[in-house]
């Protein structure tokens, strides 16, 4: 962290997920006498969401992890989640108890959906989980933990939350279990996992064995993450029941590790406020000795809970920025909130805040927000964000530039200044949502889109001076992509108006413009290596050992970012604007939609959304999950030339587009 402070503040460098600007001056800048002292504000700097493991890290090999761990160390992370390889541990425990291999495999989800089987949301989808995967991930976890500890970090290992394979009633007929609610509208093959009753002696037995096996395999730093009711309501709101649930989890941890500390995601309190009222929250938190539980205030920048719980009734908490849902790529941020929020958490009366954290569901997006948030570890006061983004751009591109500085000022006040509590999950129609005639697709836009377009203007003007910077080219593509997303929305609005006016000529004309835009977007994204579907699929297949594993891995990779389930259970939740995906998945859906609108006008019938949904599912969405067509893993085309052509073609469209500012 001290090294990165020096690199950024004295050498003008930057190290991010999209690349590094490491033009270090020679000779090295000297530190003034008697030196610089920078003190962290909190004991802990936490990193990861339980979903990050699948939305971003699922196909990582050791080379990928080394880069990620370097990023973590440089940005001051000292408490990362370390969930890789846990299936091997649970497999051992369950098979020692008499479960068969198939019964355990039926409990695990596929590689890209493990996070949700771990939390008991569902089981089996995307499986059966290959044994080769289980063995690989176990070996990888050893490397990760060795490096994490070498860097001085405290890894958080998983504990037992009570979710058990359905076969438990075969082995223990008297086991007291209940079905969890249906999460994600899965059918009976995958839904409604069994939860072991907290009073059942098996709960403590399994919890003990899991931690003991984990400790024997990996060693321990005594902090364990356990989430029993993630996005699933408990069967009772009784304070007694909830208190017993917390007691059981903690005692199971303690039985194997007397120094155990339970770390819990506070998402349940933020996501289900109608259930988790003060008595229910207090029952859970006060059932564990103070200081032996840490709450991740997971979405503090948007829904802080510490204020209505008297600082979690005395339990320590970590102020976290969630920021991203599903690993989507929309430009989004809450600069004001993350600039003032951590300090407000520390200053809260009788505050028990002990750290800050970054808990995105997916990474590799909006890097400016994560650079800014990481600095909260050591800055003592809110920063001048206008001044900060100029310095950020200078470090990022390796030199000052008036146009890039202006662009970032405009981005700061628009896409990165959400103040109305909206989440980042994009509800934009194009290109990542299934086409619909109904107004549910009208998106929430929290900024004046002209500010975004003017930022685009300035980045284009900066091209001549900054074109040799790989991070500049990445940002140029990213902003251009988001501008096309906004322009496509105006096309959609015009398309629906033309359909309502029964103007088939206009429907055809505007529909063609929309389809052309998607083709151009795919070409744009294909010119930059960070926006390629082919890399995602290649990484998935590259971890496979057998042809059968390769097929399963590719299915997982494709299904997660599209249907997310057998029937579109979380349709487009983890959508990605990637080259290949736009061309082969999103654009065909929109072509079918345009053709359906024209057919309805030709036949004089109303547009039938239900019929369209069924047709697009069966002919485009479902086949994509099982297709094995290959996609490029290397960029193609001249990024700067492509951006220039797209800018010349589409910027004029913004001067007369249908308004949708702050809608």
Characterise this structure.
The structure is a single chain. With about 675 residues, this protein is an alpha/beta fold. It has a domain at about 480-655: Four Helix Bundle (Hemerythrin (Met), subunit A), CATH 1.20.120. About 50% of the residues lie in helices and about 5% in strands. The chain has 26 helices and 13 strands. The protein has helices spanning about 1-10, 50-55, 60-75, 85-95, 100-105, 115-120, 130-150, 170, 200-220, 240-255, 265-270, 280-285, 310-315, 335-345, 365-375, 385-395, 400-415, 450-460, 465, 470-500, 505-525, 535-540, 545-560, 580-605, 610-625, 640-650, and strands at about 15, 20, 45, 80, 155-160, 165, 175-180, 195, 225, 260-265, 295, 315-320, 355-360. An 8-stranded parallel sheet has the order 4-3-13-12-11-10-9-5. Strands 6-8-7 form a 3-stranded antiparallel sheet, with no helix packed on it. Helix 4 packs across helix 9 (about 200-220), helix 10 (about 240-255) packs parallel to helix 12 and helix 20 packs parallel to helix 26 (about 640-650). The longest helix has about 30 residues, at about 470-500. The radius of gyration is 25 Å and the shape is globular. It starts with a helix and ends in a 13-residue tail after the last helix. Residues about 660-663 have low confidence and may be disordered.
